[in-house]
Amino acid sequence: MVNMTGKDTSYLKETVGEALARGCAAAINAQPNDPVEYLGLWLLKFVKNAEVEGQFYKERQEQLQDKKDKLVRRVARKAVLHRTTVAKQEKAATDLEAKKVALQEALVKKAADEAEAEAQAAAEAEAAAAAAAAGEGQAKDEPAPEGEAGEEEEED
Questions:
Q1: Which of 35, 16, 17 is closest to 26 using CA atoms?
Q2: Of 19, 63, 83, 121, which is most buried with the most CB atoms under 10 A?
Q3: 7 versus 72: which is more confidently predicted?
Q4: If 0-12 CB within 10 Å is exposed, 13-18 middle and 19+ buried, where does residue 90 land?
Q5: pLDDT at 136
């Protein structure tokens, strides 16, 4: 028999302890004719099951990572779409505001032009009235032509 140190037993417990304990328990329950062969086959099956479980776990982790990646991409696309939509809405609001300002400026200019035209028309009318008034005053100072004066006399 081999002399084992505390390190050796610790190593065996850490690496194969659980598998051997489960295999021995299975052999005791089964009571086979050849317990060593049974334990060997059981350990091979244990290793195969561990590999299958490991592969399943790995595949499951990959599936979960794929789902996570898809979700992250979808969220990123939605965020980009949201930012694009908000930018379009802001641009539309800015354009609308610029159109409002331009329309208001056009209305103010039109009103100013109309007021200026009215003022010019009023000034022209006033000048015409003043000229007419000046013309009447000049006409009173001038003697009436003879034909006109005679007509006035006959009416009396």
A1: 35
A2: 19
A3: 72
A4: exposed
A5: 75
Please report, for the chain, how many H helices and E strands are present, in that order.
Answer: 4, 0
Q: Check if the beta carbon of residue 49 is closer than 8 Å to that of residue 68.
A: no
pTM (two decimals): 0.47
Question: How many Å apart are CA 98 and CA 92, to the nearest integer?
Answer: 10
Q: What is the pLDDT of residue 156?
A: 47
pLDDT over threshold 60, residue 44:
yes
Q: Are 38 and 32 within 8 A, CB to CB?
A: yes
Give the mean model confidence (pLDDT) for residues 45-62: 96
Where b means 16+ CB within 10 Å and e means fewer, 118-154 reads eeeeeeeeeeeeeeeeeeeeeeeeeeeeeeeeeeeee
Measured CA to CA, the distance from residue 129 to residue 135 in angstroms comes to 10
Q: Please, what sign has the CA dihedral across residues 30, 50, 45, 15?
A: negative
Q: How far apart are CA 34 and CA 31, in angstroms?
A: 9
List the structure tokens of 44: 């091979």
82: which 2 tokens? Answer: 């949201």
Give the pLDDT confidence of 127-137 residue by residue, as tens digits: 888 888 887 76
Please, are residues 24 and 39 in contact by the beta-carbon 8 Å criterion?
A: yes
